[in-house]
Each structure stands twice: as structure tokens, then as C-alpha cells.
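Students often ask why inverse folding is considered easier than folding. One informal answer: many sequences map to the same fold, so there is more than one right answer. In these notes we will look at a single instance of the problem. The structure comes first.
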């Protein structure tokens, strides 16, 4: 069993948390080897070498981006026929830990959520983002939790590239840091004209305030959409918020705090397997907390691709 630890998760607090809970993690998971993720190349090499040695049990210890990183390297390096046997666990050392939500339904060690039951695993869909970057090169990324365009993506970009106050908040008060990043972006972000095509059957042209594509509907602290979490359902849910007034936006946020979104004015929701997004200029796209910039994007899904711990 291999643990990939991201010491920078949680605003740099992950390593301290890990040292505190590591003995308890071993009680739940059994013996393992820990590798500290100093850089992406080293992580990829470690995962690839472990797979070649026959290892099939991995744990991502960090935030949502760490889970995504380990998943990505597994899928990129697993020999043919091995992916189906790999099992992915997680320890939530990040700021939001959306992968583990809802937090009232998961196990905790000293306030840290974890999914480490390698006996009772479930099969989970993996989503694929294919996009053209600003140099017009075709690229792809995988995600397993949620993805977004608009306010949420811009807020994640700011959260990952903080100014002085946000950097301090991330270390001392992660919940306040997320609220600060979100509110600052809400005030500054202007709705953008985009064309959204769902399952190649319905096209919407509108100014987008926020667009999310979710497997797990929970995101950014206590906010949640009202679509179900179905890990192996073979589809995702798309939630669109069009350009709205400031009061309407506040009401939408209050609704998300209560887990309600669908049916509100200036919104749209779909269950889908494919989504295409185009805009006149490059825009930010977030997937599992990591942000890229694209000129166009295509989201799809591979059903039941990997086993994840409960």
C-alpha cells in the first residue's frame, strides 16, 4: 500500500496533521509506505514504479487535488487490465475536502475525514475534460468530484494563487479563506457569453455567471446542489446559473447553503453524459480544485472505471 502525501494541502498544514494522525491511519489501513509529494514528476514516478511492482492499493493524503493527482497517475501508468484491480483511498488534509462530503456521513480521525476501507470498495465513474489551451493545443484532464466554469472556477484560481490576506486565512482559518475567496470573486466576476451544448441535443446561448458539472454535489464549505451523489451512475449533473442581479445571487447562495438550486429563476439543470462549452475568448475551468485556461471544452464520462474506498 502506497500513500502519496501532499504537505502543501490545507494551506501548508497537511504535514503537521498527518504526523498527528498517521498512527491511527495505520490502525485502519494496515502497513503502508509514505511518499511526500515534493513535485509532480516524483509522484508520477512513484506511482508508476509501484504499479510495475504489482501494487494495487493507493491513498491520496491531502486535498481534492491530491486525490485527483493520484487518480490521474494511476490511470496514466497502469498496465492494460490493471486499472480494474486498483483501489483508491483518501485522507482529507485539505481546506474543503469535497471528495469526503457529506462530512457527517464519513469516518474521522481527530477531525480529519478518511475513506480507507479497502474491503468494502465501490466502483466510481471518472470524468474526462478535453480542451484546447491558449496555444490551440488539444489537451485532457480527468476529474472525479466536480468541475466548474465561471465564478466557482475563478474563486478556485484565486484560492490556489492567494494574496497576502488569503494566504494567512488558509493557514489559520480555512473556512474563512474559502468564504473570502468566494465573496471577492462574486463581487468582481462578470458574467460571460457562452454556448453550452448538453448531450449534443440541447444548446443554450447565454451569459454565464456560474456553471458546474458534478458527480459529488458538495463544494466550497457548506454549499451543495440538490442533485444526488451517485458514484457509479454513469452520468453527471449540470447546473447553470445565468446572469443575475446581486439580490438574486444572494438568494441563490442562501439556497445552496440549504442544498436547493433547481427550479430557481435564471437557472438550468440537466443529467448528462456529455457537455460542450464554447466562448469567444479563453476562460478558466476548474476540475477537482485545480484550474486551467481553455478556449473551448468538452466534458464526458467513463462509467465505473476505478474502485474507491468507503
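Output (designed amino acids):
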Amino acid at each position: 500500500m502506497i500513500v502519496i502525501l501532499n504537505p502543501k494541502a490545507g494551506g501548508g498544514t497537511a504535514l503537521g496533521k498527518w504526523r498527528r494522525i498517521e498512527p491511527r491511519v495505520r490502525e485502519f489501513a494496515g502497513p503502508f509506505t509514505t511518499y511526500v509529494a515534493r513535485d509532480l514528476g516524483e509522484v508520477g514516478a512513484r506511482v508508476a514504479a509501484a504499479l510495475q511492482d504489482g501494487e494495487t492499493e493507493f491513498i491520496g493524503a491531502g486535498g481534492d487535488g491530491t486525490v485527483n493527482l493520484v487518480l490521474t497517475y494511476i490511470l496514466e501508468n497502469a498496465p492494460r487490465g490493471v486499472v480494474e484491480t486498483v483501489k483508491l483511498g483518501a485522507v482529507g488534509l485539505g481546506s474543503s475536502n469535497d471528495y469526503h462530503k457529506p462530512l457527517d456521513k464519513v469516518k474521522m480521525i481527530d477531525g480529519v475525514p478518511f475513506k480507507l476501507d479497502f474491503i468494502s470498495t465501490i466502483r466510481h465513474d471518472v470524468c474526462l475534460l478535453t480542451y484546447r489551451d491558449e496555444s490551440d493545443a488539444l489537451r485532457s484532464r480527468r476529474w472525479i468530484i466536480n468541475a466548474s466554469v465561471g465564478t466557482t472556477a475563478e474563486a478556485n484560481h484565486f484560492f490556489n494563487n492567494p494574496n497576502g490576506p488569503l494566504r494567512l486565512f488558509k493557514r489559520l482559518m480555512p473556512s474563512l479563506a474559502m468564504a473570502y475567496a468566494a465573496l471577492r470573486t462574486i463581487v468582481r466576476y462578470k458574467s460571460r457569453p457562452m454556448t453550452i451544448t448538453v448531450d449534443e441535443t440541447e444548446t443554450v446561448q447565454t451569459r454565464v455567471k456560474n456553471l458546474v458539472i458534478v458527480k459529488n454535489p458538495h463544494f466550497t464549505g457548506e454549499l451543495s446542489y440538490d442533485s444526488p451523489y451517485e458514484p457509479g451512475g454513469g452520468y453527471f449533473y449540470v447546473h447553470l446559473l445565468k446572469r443575475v442581479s446581486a439580490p438574486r445571487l444572494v438568494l441563490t447562495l442562501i439556497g445552496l447553503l440549504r442544498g436547493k438550486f433547481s427550479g430557481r429563476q435564471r437557472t438550468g439543470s440537466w443529467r448528462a453524459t456529455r457537455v460542450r462549452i464554447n466562448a469567444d475568448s479563453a476562460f478558466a475551468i476548474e476540475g477537482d480544485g485545480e484550474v486551467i485556461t481553455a478556449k473551448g471544452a468538452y466534458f464526458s464520462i467513463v462509467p465505473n472505471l476505478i474502485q474507491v474506498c468507503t
